From TrEMBL:
Keywords: Cell membrane, Membrane, Transmembrane, Transmembrane helix, Transport. GO terms for molecular function: transmembrane transporter activity. The keyword Plastid does not apply. PANTHER family: SHIKIMATE TRANSPORTER. GO terms for cellular component: plasma membrane. This is MHS family MFS transporter. InterPro entries: MFS, MFS_dom, MFS_trans_sf, Sugar_transporter_CS. Pfam families: MFS_1 (PF07690). It comes from Leucobacter insecticola. Residues 16-424 form the Major facilitator superfamily (MFS) profile domain. It is a multi-pass membrane protein. The keyword Cell membrane applies. The chain crosses the membrane at residues 28-47, 53-76, 88-107, 113-132, 161-184, 190-209, 240-260, 280-303, 310-330, 336-361, 373-396, 402-423. It is found in: Cell membrane.
Length: 459
């Protein structure tokens, strides 16, 4: 894609931003409403015969197990996204996520259909995992590939904004149900279902919006020239496996800490271990999601000013500084301490999430980019956030202390920083199919900055 072509899309930036943010918000609302409910109701309604402690572990495990299927979703979406286009995969993944979420809202509980209830719940969560694995890459590329080179950092933050917005919406909706519409036992009886059923309306809105945007100009040019890669995943792992590992480590550093909140562990800890009111905790999580939104937005601008790598390193430094104080604040600070802990987490998360889409897009060649960003993101989620709530719960049970949890979070943060240090910043690199030689070379410190032309042949 030429520079002229990229600059020619500037007039559509607002429409692309709106469509990307709204669609991603809806997708992640669906994903997070499950994680929020896992810590509040699923242990009682679907896993209660296992006993209170084991039921909670099983409930958190279903959150993590779905992540194991995110790479499969990424593989499928990456393959067809590189072959058929970014937009079509965005529509398919949105519909899949919405259908699974709505079905959870009408699912009978263990007391009604026995062991079939948790099995069906897990199957629907797996469908959510498949959708989440495929959705992010398409949204990221639609935003970044439409943007002029000098504004890719802020454009790449648009799909990232949908994640805190989705979490805010999920936390806010659940808080509304627990505190106003169906307090007490009514929430366990029927109120928890409403946030899932609302997904029907959201999916219709998201579908109409995503259908309205044009295809990524990079893919349009690839398709016009017939340059689609026949086996993008094979090419990715044959030529870029080191890059995949390093970039996945970056997201491990972010998602492990992130799923302390979005995965429900810290919410449940504040409620069960510190005795805080359920609705108060959910409102605090929603406020923190707002902070996460703004820190993510700021990080996108910073990525265009000081670079993707530097923004990440600042964010990881913030994360490393807060992983021990956050539990002290929750343990000793009451409700103000909970707010302070969640806000501190959210600042670091935004700084290590806002530039992610842009950096990933600039690392991989055009013909395998959808596969590259989707699979890397999914692997980072699996080895980072997937089982973070369950691991944290196990560490708490084994040691009776949060020190082990904070040490675990610090290790993940350091791994993310190592991954960031090993990658190169490539702001302004052309993203179109005419520049695959340049795109193939120099993504990490272990690769030469310049490649022979034959190395760019990724088919």
């Amino acid at each position: 894609m030429s520079t002229t072509l990229a600059a020619g899309t500037a007039s559509s930036q607002r429409r692309i931003a709106f469509a990307t943010i709204i669609g991603t918000t809806i997708e992640w609302y669906d994903f997070f409403i499950y994680a929020t409910s896992a810590s509040l109701v699923f242990a009682q309604l679907f896993f209660e015969p296992a006993g209170k402690s084991i039921a909670l572990l099983l409930s958190f495990a279903t959150v993590g197990i779905s992540f194991l299927f995110r790479p499969l979703g990424a593989f499928l979406a990456g393959h067809f996204g590189d072959a058929l286009g970014r937009r079509v995969m965005l529509v398919i993944t949105l519909i899949l996520m919405g259908a699974a979420t709505t079905l959870i809202g009408i699912l009978p509980t263990y007391s009604q259909i026995g062991i079939a209830a948790p099995i069906l719940l897990l199957l629907l969560r797996i469908l959510q995992g498949l959708s989440a694995g495929g959705e992010w890459g398409g949204a990221a590329l639609m935003a970044v590939e439409h943007a002029p080179a000098g504004r890719r950092g802020r454009a790449g933050s648009w799909p990232q904004l949908g994640v805190p917005l989705g979490f805010l919406l999920a936390s806010g909706m659940t808080a509304l149900m627990t505190g106003v519409i169906s307090p007490g036992d009514a929430f366990l009886q029927w109120g928890w279902r409403v946030p899932f059923l609302v997904s029907v309306v959201l999916i219709v809105v998201g579908f109409l919006i995503r259908r309205s945007v044009s295809e990524s100009p990079v893919f349009a040019e690839i398709a016009k020239r017939g340059k689609q890669t026949r086996a993008p995943i094979v090419a990715l792992f044959k030529n870029h496996w080191r890059l995949v590992i390093l970039a996945a480590l970056v997201f491990v550093g972010n998602s492990t800490l992130g799923y302390m909140t979005t995965g429900g562990f810290l919410n449940n800890y504040a409620i069960t271990e510190q005795g805080l009111d359920r609705t108060v905790v959910l409102v605090a999580a929603a406020v923190a999601a707002g902070v996460w939104f703004f820190s993510t937005l700021i990080a996108g601008y910073l990525a265009d000013i000081i670079g993707r790598k530097n923004t990440f390193l600042v964010g990881f430094a913030v994360q490393a500084a807060v992983v021990f104080p956050i539990f002290w604040l929750v343990d000793h600070g009451g409700v103000p301490g909970l707010y302070a802990a969640l806000i501190l987490i959210s600042i670091g998360l935004g700084l290590t999430y806002g530039p992610l889409a842009t950096w990933y897009a600039e690392l991989f060649p055009a013909s395998i980019r959808f596969s590259g960003v989707s699979i890397t993101y999914a692997l980072g989620a699996v080895f980072g956030g997937a089982f973070a709530p369950m691991i944290a719960q196990m560490l708490l049970g084994a040691t009776g202390s949060t020190v082990a949890i904070s040490s675990y979070l610090l290790l993940a943060t350091l791994l993310g920083a190592i991954g960031a240090l090993c990658l190169r910043d490539r702001p302004g690199i052309p993203l179109g199919p005419d520049h695959e030689v340049e795109q193939t070379a120099g993504g990490s410190v272990f690769a030469p900055r310049h490649a022979a032309p034959e190395l760019a042949a990724t088919r």
